[in-house]
Amino acid sequence: MTGFSNKFVLSSYRLVDFLCYPRFSAEEYNSRINELRSLNIKFVLLEGPTVLNNDNILGKGNEGLVLKVSDHSNNRMAIKIRRTDSCRIEMESEFNFYKYVNLYNVGPKAYLYTKNTLLMEWIEGLPARKWFLSTKDRLDLVRKIIIDILNQCYKLDKIGIDHGQLNKLDNHVIISHDGSRCTIVDFESASSKRKVNNVTSALQGLIFKGAISEQVNKFLNYDNKKTEFLNLLSNYKHNKSRKNFDPIISLIEYS
Fold it and tell me: At 99, which helix (H) or strand (E)?
């Protein structure tokens, strides 16, 4: 421990269950410690919106945990560590998706990977659901964030990458506290072979169904425009062009 209650060196016993989750193996644990050291990681900071084993981390998914880390120069980053029960055998494919979408200014910057880890930019902010639930009276800002998310989804549609989980925006978009930036995260289920449905999926979660849409519609009342949205979305699904995408954005902006 280094003087901060949430900051631990890699060898700390407090990190064992996170580095080798959910099933411990001494061989696997030692391998992961060496991988982290090869990435110049010195500390893990138990911080974030997700609670696991009574500690806070950045995220927990079906395939991995995301932890906040720092290197020897105190640069803060995020690292995704493959779960020991994951059906995946490596992190290279997700890293490659990140590097590709990064070319289009989508996603956190991906830095390096090992067999069991993926080192990337740490995005400060709130998961989308928490951000929308905490933002009630800044309607122009809410519109701006919705449009920003959809514009990033349009980029993914155009480059042929289907995220695969954007119908569940809650933990797949991080929004800065002041709303100046939103970032699509977690490309573990991404595919370049599936039909792309990023705009369609995100629009469902933002306007049609779920906790975020309920909050949005309390103040912006897009429910009244549902038929118009569905007609525009039908046109877009038939031909994913800018010509068919822009009317969706205009309806959001001026409704």
Answer: helix 92-102
